[in-house]
Amino acid sequence: MSKTVPFGASLAFEERMFPKLNAEIQFDRDQETRERALKSLCDLSHNQVKAYQICSLGLMDSIGKILDDPNDLCRELATEIFAVMCTHNIGRDAALKFIPKLSELFSEKNENTRKNVHKALYYSSELIRGVTQMIEKKLIPVFINLLKTEINDVRCWIIQTFHNCLRFASDEALQNQGFETLKELLEVDNEIIVEYSLRSLAEITFNSAGKARANSDEKLADFLITIIKNKKRGVEVRSAACAALGSVSITSHGKIKSVDCKALSPLCDLLQEDNSEAKLMSLTCISILSEVPDGRSYMLQRVELIRPYVMSKDELVATAAKECLRVIQWKP
Amino acid sequence: MSTEVIPQKTEEAKESFSYASHPKPLQARRKFRNDPGAGERYGNLMFDRRIVRGNTYAQSTFPPTTQINWSNAVIDRAQLQDNPMDLQRKAEKKRAKEARLRQEKELEDSRKSPLPVDGRRHINVQTETYLEELTNRVEEADVTCQTDLFLDRPPTPKYIPAKTGVDTSTQIMPHELFDFDMEVKPILEVLVGKCVEQSLEEVFEEEELENLREQQRKFHEARKREVLATQRLEEQERRLTDERERRITQQREVRRKEKQTAEKIAARAYAQNYLMDMIPVVFGKLRDSGYFFDPIKRDIELNFMADLIKKVQGQCDESELARLIADELIRHVVTTRLDEYE
To answer: Could you tell me which SUPFAM superfamilies the record lists for this protein (chain A) (predicted)?
Structure first.
C-alpha cells in the first residue's frame, strides 16, 4: 500500500466534472485513476455547492460501494470523503443509509480510516435520525467496547458520538457497562475525552436507574469534587463535572454524600468564573445541594455571592440565580 | 512467394482446363529484410533469373513424353537420361568435346616447332632475363568479402524543402503594443477580488458555524439546567409527597387507635352494666344448683345418709319381703282352701 497521498485527477470543466469523476472511480478502472479521482473528490467536497452536486448526481452511492474495496488507500480516501461530506447537511442525509457499512470498518488497521469513520458517525449523530439508526443497529455496545480499546485520537470522536446517542439510549448503555467505562475514561489524559465523558455521565444519570447506579458508587462524588476543585483543568471540564455532580446529587442519598464531601466551596469558586456554562451549572448544583439542611446553613452565609447574578444580562443565569436564592432562603 | 507446379499436360490428358492454383504473376524478391510494407511488388519476366533466356534455336526441346519426376521412388538411369536437365548437360558436354578437338587441331596446325620425335621430349624453358619459379602450386591469396546480411531499411530522410521566398524581420518596441502597468490592473483586480471574495465567504461561513455551535452549546446548557432543575423540583415534590403520605398514614394510625380505644371503653361500660345484675343471679343459681355446700353436711349426706338410707331401705325391703311372703302364704292358703272348698 502506498503511503503517499496521490495527486488529484485532472478535472473536466463545469458540468462534466462530476460525471467524469464518477466514471473514474468505478471498479473497472485501474488503481491509479481511482485513487486520483477520489483524492480530487476529497478536495472538492469541502465546498458546499460542490457537495450538493455530489449528492444530487448520486456520487455518494459509488463512493459507498468503495467502502468495501480491497485496496486500503481507496477505502481511506472514501472514508475521508464521507467525513467531509457529513459536515454538510446534504451529506449527512446521504450518509445516513451508509451507517451500517461504515460500522463494519471499525476494525481497520489504518488509524486515519478509523478516525474518518468515527468523524462521519459523529456528524451523523447530530441528526436524530442518525442516532435512531445507530441505536437500531445496536452500535451502543460496540461504542462502549471501542471506548475501552481504541487510541486517544479516535476515542475523541467516539465519545462525542456516544454522548449524542445517550439522550435516547441511556438505559441500553447502562446495561452494557457504560457507567464503568465512563468512569475509566475520566482518568485519561486527553481533555476532550474527559470533558465529554463527564457530560455523558451527566446524561446517563438523568434517569433513575442511572442515579441508582451512581449512588451505589461510593467514590464518584469525591472524584467529581476533586475535578471541580482542580483549577488547572479547563473551565469546560470543571463545568461538565459540575453538571455530573448535580445529576448524581438529586437523590437524597447523593445530596447528603456530596455535602459531606464538602462540595459547596469549590462550587462557589466555580461560580466566579467567566464562562456562562460554569455559572449556570454551579448555580444549579448549589440549589440542589442547598436542600440539605447542612448545605442550606452553609449557603445562608454566602447569599451575597449569588445576589449579583440575579441582575445578570443572561436570562438563564438570572433565572437560575433567583431559583437558587429561593431554595436557600426557604422556610418551612 | 508460393508457386505450385503446373503438371505437364500429356496428350492423353488434354481435358478441359483445370488448375491447382489461380494463375498469378510472379512476385519479385524483397530487397530489404524489413522492407516496410511494399505490398505486392511484381517482377519483370525479363529480369528473372529463373527463366531461360536468349536464343532457343540451339537448345534441345523437351520431348513431349518426358515428365519431371520429383518423387522418392527409385530413379531409373534410363529415366534420368530422359531428364531434360541431363539432356542439356549432355548436349553441352558434346559441344565442349567438339570444341576441344577443334582447338587441338588448330593448335597443331599453328605450332611453330614440330612435335617431338619418339624418345624425346620437349620442355619449355624460360629464356627471359629474370627467371620465374614455375610451380604447380599457384600462389593463392584468400580474399574474403561478405555482404551485410539483410540491411534494415534506413529511415526516410526528413524532407526539407528548399528555401524559397524572401526573408523579412520585424521588431516590436517596448511600449508599442500595450502598456503593461495599465493593462494588468483589471486582471489583478479580478484575481485579487476573487481571492478576497472567496476568503470572505469562508470567513463568513466559519463565523456562521461558530454562531451555530454557540447556539447549540447554549441550548445544551439550557437543556441540562432545565433537566436538573426539573429533576430537583421533581425530587422535592417526591419528598414532599412521601412526607405527606407518611404523615397521612401516621394520622390514620392514630385515628384508628383512638377509635379502638373508644370502642374498648364503650364495650367495657356495657359489659360492666350487663354484669352488674348478673352476679347475684349467677350466685343464686349456683347456690340453687348446689355448687356451694357445707362440707360436713355434704360429707354426712354422702356417706352417712347413704348408708342409713340403704339400711332403712334394707329394712323396708325386708319388711316388704316379709309381707309379700305373708301375702303369698295367705294366697296360697286361700287358694288351697278355695280349692279345697270346691
So the answer is: ARM repeat
Which of A137, A166, A189 is the last residue in one of the domains?
A137
Position A162 in a domain: no
**Is the model's pLDDT at A244 over the cut of 70?**
yes
Which cell numbers in the block locate residue A317? Answer: 443565569
- A284: closest CA of chain B, how far (Å): 7
Q: Which residue has the cell 319381703?
A: B321
Q: For position B197, what pLDDT does the model report?
A: 94
B133-190 per-position pLDDT tens digit: 777 887 788 888 887 778 778 888 899 988 888 999 998 888 788 888 888 999 999 9
Cα dist from B130 to A166, B110, B123, B124, B127, whole Å: 130, 28, 18, 15, 8
Contact of A37 with A24, CB cutoff 8 Å: yes
Please indicate, yes or no, if residue A169 is contained in any of the structural domains. Answer: no
Q: Pull the grid cell for residue A62.
A: 459509488
The three grid cell numbers given for residue B130, joined into one nine-digit string: 629474370
Residue B111 banded pLDDT, cuts 50, 70, 90: low
Nearest residue to A289 via CA among B69, B232, B105 = B232
| B222/A277 Cβ within 8 A | no
pLDDT band at B196 (very low <50, low <70, confident <90, very high): very high
For chain B, what is the domain count?
A: 1
| Size (chain B), residues | 342
Residues of A in contact with B224 (CB under 8 A): 202, 243, 281
- Structural domain that includes position B298: 294-341
CA distances from A87 to A45, A100, A221, B87 (A): 10, 19, 37, 103
Range of the domain at A128: 12-137
The complex's ipTM? 0.79
**Separation between Cα atoms, residue A177 and residue A157, nearest integer Å:** 19
CA distances for B280 relative to A230, B1, B179, B276, B289, angstroms: 92, 167, 151, 8, 14
Which amino acid, residue A229?
K
**Rounded distance, CA A276 to CA A267, Å?**
14
- Across the A:B interface, residue pairs with CB atoms under 8 Å apart total 42
The conformational region for residue B165 under phi > 0 = left, psi -120 to 50 = alpha, else beta, is left
Question: Which one of A49, A277, A285, A327 would you mutate to disrupt binding with B, by most B Cβ within 10 Å of its Cβ?
Answer: A277
Q: Are A289 and A259 in contact (CB under 8 A)?
A: yes
Task: Answer whether A162's CB lies under 8 Å from A176's CB.
Answer: no
* Chain A residue numbers touching B227 (CB-CB < 8 A): 206
pLDDT in tens, A54-76: 998 888 888 888 888 888 888 89
